[in-house]
Amino acid sequence: MRFPPSRKFNCMSYNNILSESQNGITTLTINRPSKLNALNKVTIEELHDAFAKADQDPSTKAIILTGSGEKAFVAGADISEFADFDVAEGANLARQGQEILFDFVENLGTPVIAAVNGFALGGGLELAMSAHFRIASDNARMGLPEVSLGVIPGYGGTQRLPQLIGKGRAMEMIMTAGMIDANTALEYGLINHLVAQEELLPLAEKLAGKIMRNSSVAIAEAIGAVNAGYKEGVNGFDAEIAAFGNCFGTEDFTEGTTAFLEKRKAAFPGK
């Protein structure tokens, strides 16, 4: 397959993901179609590396996360890797996974859009929920089936799902281990938009384009302020005040306010 010369591929060789950059957008594709893109240790580590590189790249203004093929975003975790773990190993698995990937993505300063293109189950739904918002194709199915395996969601699912759809609905999804379709996910507020599969990535790119018109510095501050309101022991309003003040010391604030007063489009330097 040939790609236009404007596309840039990550120089690091990944086994389980693809990383592609174009026009300010980095698209990360989980590429294990024979395993329905299930998460294993290597995939989690590769995603961390790719997210970190995209976040540190000043040319990347938005990140799209999706799965390869037409069946699955991520169909879950690779159970064979931890089926024989003991209590300590299980806790360490959840702790490391949250630190390396799920919490890391949630707190990334670069906006992350999850484009859910099929099954998003278990760790796959938890990964989608760690993104800053989600869109889905009409064939998507979402759920947290962990209790059917004698375990609970361990990558933030018991925390993020109630935040997004409310405690009662989250309890039902977790306890029944059932799946919901994309229409129900839209009704619940778990996803922001629902489109046909062929329209999914174009919509993600369109939304990323709208984000990129704005100050990347202010967006990073806004992400931090919103997340602060969900952290135990943190006053979200105080975090907002501090983030608001931080913006006044940026070149983006100077450019944005000057452009507004001069009635022109802002050209944010991202500083």
Break the fold down into its secondary structure elements and pairings.
Elements: E1 8-9, E2 17-22, E3 25-30, H1 41-56, E4 62-67, E5 72-74, H2 87-106, E6 112-116, E7 119-121, H3 123-130, E8 133-137, E9 141-143, H4 157-165, H5 167-176, E10 179-181, H6 182-188, E11 193-195, H7 197-212, H8 216-228, H9 236-247, H10 251-261
Parallel strand pairs: 3-4, 4-6, 5-7, 6-8, 7-9, 8-11
Antiparallel strand pairs: 1-2, 2-3, 9-10
What does this protein look like?
The chain has 271 residues and is α/β, with parallel strands linked by helices. The chain has two domains: 8-212, 2-enoyl-CoA Hydratase, Chain A, domain 1 (Alpha-Beta Complex), CATH 3.90.226; 216-261. 45% of the residues lie in helices and 17% in strands. It contains ten helices and eleven strands. The strands form two sheets. It has a seven-stranded mixed beta sheet, with helices on both faces. A four-stranded mixed beta sheet has the order 5-7-9-10. A hairpin with a 7-residue loop joins strand 1 (8-9) and strand 2 (17-22). Helix 2 packs parallel to helix 3 and helix 4 crosses helix 5. Residues 1-11 have low confidence and may be disordered.
Output the number of helix runs: 10
Q: In one word, what is the shape? A: globular
The largest β sheet comes out as: 7 strands, mixed
Q: State the separation between the terminal residues, measured CA to CA.
A: 37 Å
Low-confidence stretches: 1-11
How many domains would you count in the coordinates? 2
